[in-house]
Amino acid sequence: MKSLELFLHENAQEGFVSIATLREAMERFTCKARTVEEAIFKAGLTPLRYRRNQQSLTQADQHRLFDAHVLVVGCGGLGGLTSELLARVGIGSLTLIDPDVYEEHNLNRQIFSTVKTLGQSKAKTVRKRLLEINPALHVRALQDALVPENAHLLVKGKSVVVDALDCPLTKTLLAFTCNEENVAFVHGAIGGWMGQCSTSKNLEEIYKDGEKGAEKQSGNLPMTAAFCACLQASLVLKTLLDKPVLEDSLLFFDLYDMEMMQARLF
């Protein structure tokens, strides 16, 4: 019987394998989409869905992203879009956690919040959408909150953890846990027209006021959430590919005055 690798090479075009070929391979070799996509990378090929990545990412980079496992904590304005961007660029495994359901006030900025999804679990809704984008993804959705009792279990063994939370105390808990588990961390926060990102795990100085987050006073605008999510997704990719990140500084942005600046954290 013809091997899966040989089948993929025979049906590849210019080094790329289409989703039609992936589906045919699933049926012919009785395997899941993820198994076929893994075989594509091991054969030195690339899924056609990533063709437009190739001017910026190598085949080896793409394979590295496929092997990564990212934890996204919070599936709202930041975490929802960050998850989709990571799924589209090629992250192979995602764990999503959020205790909440969609409410009407989420409709202004949360990409998966629609009239039809009101009352539905954020994490589970995001998972469903991501699998529609790429059935080869491994996505785990937890309708739960990050607390001291489960933080280490969730963080342990992940490639990168994304902070898409809105509670300063929980953000610092997550950063502290990532530091203890030696797992890369990507912070993000917004308020009104402004936001910030970092890969530093030293958030204590930023959140000295405990529960007082900027969004409580300034609200959450959709373009601010989307901009911050794009920065966070970029930092995840750079972290996974060993590119320079914001290890000892905080990147501030102000979309009203169209300004960006970096400030050292210590």
| Structure annotation, total helices | 10
Number of domains: 2
Spans of 5+ residues with little confidence (pLDDT < 50)? none
Oligomer: single chain
Overall average pLDDT:
94
Give the CA-based shape.
Answer: globular
Distance between the termini: 61 Å
Task: State which percent range the strand residues make up.
Answer: 15-25%
CATH topology of the largest domain: Rossmann fold
CATH class of the largest domain: Alpha Beta
Give a count of the beta strands, DSSP E runs of length 2 or more.
10
Q: Structural class of the secondary structure composition?
A: alpha/beta
The largest pleated sheet is described as: 8 strands, mixed
The side-by-side strand order for the widest beta sheet comes to: 5-4-3-6-7-8-9-10
Measured on Cα atoms, how large is the radius of gyration?
19 Å
N to C succession of SSEs: HEHHEHEHEHEHEHEEHHEE
CATH architecture of the largest domain: 3-Layer(aba) Sandwich
Helix content: 40-55%
CATH superfamily of the largest domain: NAD(P)-binding Rossmann-like Domain
